[in-house]
Amino acid sequence: MTRAAKYLSLVLGSAVVLAPLTAILLTSLRTSAEMADASPLAAPGNWLNLQNYVVAFTDGHMLRALWNTAFILVFSVAGTVLIGSMTAYAVDRFRFRFRRVVLGLFLIASLVPSVTTQVATYQIVNTLGAVDTRWAPILLYLGTDIVSIHIFLQFIRSIPVALDEAARLDGARTSTIYWRIILPLLRPAIATVVIIKGVAVYNDFYIPFLYLPDDSLGTISTSLFRFKGPYGAHWEVIAAGAALVIIPSLVVFLALQRFVYNGLSAGAVK
Amino acid sequence: MTSRWFTPWLYLLVPLALLVTFTYLPVVDMVSYSFTDWDGLSPVSDFVGLGNYVDLLTRPELFQVFAVSLCYLVGSAVQIVAALYFATVLSFHTRFRNLFKGILFFPYLINGVAVGFVFLYFFQPGGTLDTVLHWFGLGPRLWLGNPDLVNWSLAGVSVWRFMGLNMVLFIGAIQSIPPDLYEASDLDGASRWQRFRHIIAPGIRPIIGLSAILAISGSLSVFEIPFIMTGGANNSETFVIQTVKLAFTFDKTGLASAAAVVLLLIVLAVTWAQRRLFPEEAA
């Protein structure tokens, strides 16, 4: 393979990724009059026309969506870190009856794709009275996240047991050991879990769509999805809405690139 | 250990309660619903034995949704090959390496609904794709309107979205291959293809195996992109869209549960096959 072919393929691949996104960006900056006659890749008349963004943000209730998503995100991510690290601590640092059974329950659960069980899960969430409350997605994100537990389990094994023992000889209780020694030393694993969980929750559509049908509980995904009806013919507004949702992901990616790549590799090879 | 016997259980109480409530209980419930004609609402339901399974396996729509899965499976194969190619290229000295890697990977981080809208616009009649093809003298097509083409268009979106993830995972695996192997192969005068075939491919076999399995179970459980873009209309209904519609639109909880059990069994079988084919390798 010659060098030219290599760079040509990379440029071509990048063009395929960027073309649909560029079209959306250009469209989001057009006026509705320009929409009628311009080609999808034509430049907008005014590069700073943010009118569509204003419409998308206010009429699309994006502020409310951002609040709902942030609420769910904070509780899910914090809860996932606590649950995953507590499980790893209990299973790795204690010897007790049924330990292997507990470990097996968590390992086998990772084989069950939650997309298949929603028919029955819905009934359980319904019985708990949690449908149409923000606790439904929080509970589900906490209860079905096995990958994070695997990441913590793997990482905790590299923390020397001698540290726990020294603390115990000094009279520390197990809760003190967990909070003061284990949790701080798990920091790299926590960073990984926060990133993969954060990305998954911010982008999830299926669970909020099923469990939060109420308009006022729209998340980023479901609120954007609701653009489809009223703005069906107004692509400039839909494009602005999509861009509004994509921009935070881009900012986070640019800021935390290295962590994102490492986190995904750690999450896949659980 | 000097702590009392119940100490570990204090830490496990909440995690186990959540695990049982939201993973194991649904599986048990789902299997029991699948033998009834329950509508998901009424307090009573009748036992129908294997009726739902017979109904499911004799519906002509069933074969349709599996045919749709095949399009996504072909898409996944393309995705893995492209990811292997770009991962290999980007693992060695290349100008703007991080820029290319970032661009190719970024779609994976984009919200699914946004991806759906981006491509609804991209595939519109007279839209971006038709415009670009016109520059090369190719005629317009009904990318989403033609029932023979729609699933290939949607599978293409899926490749666009997930190729970068595979690529990043492959790059991670390639970087863990000891560099002296490449040096040795260079001294032996190996070609780039030979280097890929005999050093890189065997070195990252486990992650390729894992990706292949995820591709198969992923192809069967496609939901988001077709649901957002076409709603399953026009021949693009997938297994999960069909199940969700049965359960939540037509209130056929019993039948939907049977469908979900079938999907779960297939996914478990595929995973079991992977463990047999790629034993104890990392994954």
Number of discrete helical segments of chain B: 13
Strand content of chain A is under 5%
Task: Please summarize the sheet with the most strands of chain B.
Answer: none
CATH topology of the domain at 72-234 and 252-268 in chain A: MetI-like fold
**Major sheet characteristics of chain A:** none
CATH H level, superfamily name of the domain at 72-234 and 252-268 in chain A: MetI-like
Q: Which percent band covers the strand fraction of chain B?
A: under 5%
Radius of gyration of chain A: 23 Å
Number of strands of chain A: 0
Low-confidence stretches of chain B: none
Q: Largest protein interface? A: A-B, 92 and 87 residues
Total beta strands of chain B: 0
Total number of helices of chain A: 14
Which tags fit this structure?
heterodimer, A: mainly alpha, MetI-like fold, B: mainly alpha, 13 helices, globular
Walk me through what this model shows.
The complex is a heterodimer of chains A (270) and B (283). With 270 residues, chain A is mainly α. Helix content of chain A is 75%, strand content 0%. Chain A has a domain at 72-234 and 252-268: MetI-like fold (Orthogonal Bundle), CATH 1.10.3720. Chain A contains 14 helices and no strands. Chain B is mainly alpha-helical. Chain B has helices at 7-33, 51-58, 60-90, 97-105, 112-122, 128-135, 150-175, 180-187, 192-203, 205-220, 224-229, 239-248, 253-277. Classes of the chains: A mainly alpha (270), B mainly alpha (283). At the A-B interface, helix 1, helix 4, helix 5, helix 6 and helix 7 of A face helix 1, helix 3, helix 4, helix 5 and helix 6 of B.
